[in-house]
Amino acid sequence: MTGAGPPTPIGSHAVMFSHLAIAFSAAPTVTHPAGLVAEATGGGGAALFQLGILLLIPFAMYFFLIRPQRRRMREQQELQRSIQVGDEVITTSGVYGTITGEDGDTRFWLEIDDDVQIRIARAAIQGRVNDDDTDETADDSELEPADTDAVDDD
After folding, report:
1. The pTM is what?
2. pLDDT tens, 18-68?
């Protein structure tokens, strides 16, 4: 038999505490000339490294998660403030249209088709429609169908 005592369940806190108690009790002690007893442990550097890693995690989360999200929110708010009458926009629900008027500080009139206007919130505007996006769709619609007379069916 290797263990002296009742077995402890796996995964319980008792296992962790018992292992820590064994580790600390097995550490050699050194008696100083002043009569003080000190434990000689060599794990000080590892503990300092672990503490450094734990302190590094919040900084990493700030720089990789929180800061970019704040930047995106700030850019979105600036875009929504800069929208003017006549701008072609896309809403968060995917509706394309042209701003035809303002209805207070928080709403716009959006023309989505000829003589079809809807009222939307300023916060519902996702972005402006770039001229590049409309040029690509226009180029696709200008393509002529393939010449089907070139293939002879005999």
Report:
1. 0.50
2. 555 555 555 555 555 555 555 555 557 888 899 999 999 999 999 999 999
Q: What length is written for the chain? A: 154
Residues pairing with 110 in the sheet: 99, 118
Report how far residue 136's alpha carbon sits from residue 140's, in angstroms, rounded to the nearest whole number.
6
Only one residue has tokens 């403030």, namely 81
Locate tokens 């820590």: which residue? Answer: 20
Structure tokens at 147: 């010449």
Q: CA end-to-end span of the chain, whole Å?
A: 92
pLDDT tens digits, one per residue of 71-87: 999 999 999 999 999 99
Which CB contacts under 8 angstroms, 24+ apart, belong to 41-47?
none
User: Which two tokens mark 88?
Assistant: 């072609």
Asked whether the beta carbons of 27 and 41 are under 8 A apart, the reply is: yes
Q: Are 111 and 152 in contact (CB under 8 A)?
A: no
CATH number for the domain whose boundaries are 85-141: 2.30.30
Residue ranges covered by each domain of the chain: 43-82, 85-141
Question: What is the C-alpha to C-alpha distance for residues 100 and 10, in angstroms, rounded to an integer?
Answer: 68
